[in-house]
Amino acid sequence: MAPEQIDILVVEDNPGHALLTHAALADLAPAVRYARARDGEEALNFLFAKGNYSHRSNAAPRPLVLLGLNLPLMSGRSVLRPIKGNSLTHDIPVVMFTASADETDVAMCRLMGAADYVNKSAQVGEHIDSIRRICQQWLAPDANGQMSLAA
Q: 51 lies in a domain?
């Protein structure tokens, strides 16, 4: 994982999807700082400064989280619950970024506090379009023209 100062935490277990997401972010928002968690447990450790991330400060800027639904160790819903249920992290925008288009999944994640639900694709062009949509929705240029989380 990258240092404390990140803008987006991508929780993605599939190395191919992670690489595609990284490439799209590097192209669409090159100044955005990105880190990856490979599973739900690692994501929670990062966000709550535990385990390998105990050196992180709880005062560190809170990132936008792109969260997969079907993750190893913990499902995306199991990760979303403590994020939204904790006063330190409840305001973190969590975008469910998953291949599942099941309406039950969409409704449940929104009910649990997900800020958005975006379908991803293994098709390169469609995956990039999904990242573009996320960037347009959640990032904005700052005073220096660099992309950062929209207010």
A: yes
Q: Tokens representing 85?
A: 């249920």
Neighbours of 147 (CB within 10 A): 18
Tokens of 137: 């929705």
> For residue 32, is it within any domain?
yes
Q: Are strands 34-37 and 64-67 parallel, antiparallel or unpaired?
A: unpaired
In a domain? residue 1: no
CATH number at 133 reads 3.40.50.2300
Q: Which of 95, 98, 131, 88 is nearest to 113 (CA)?
A: 95
Q: What are phi and psi of 44, to 5 degrees?
A: -65, -40
Q: What is the tally of structural domains in the chain? A: 1
Q: What's the pLDDT tens digit per position in 45-82? A: 999 989 998 888 766 667 899 999 999 989 999 999 99
Single pTM value for the model: 0.88
- Asked whether the predicted pLDDT for residue 133 surpasses 60, the reply is yes
Helix 40-47 to helix 76-85 angle, to the nearest 10 degrees?
20
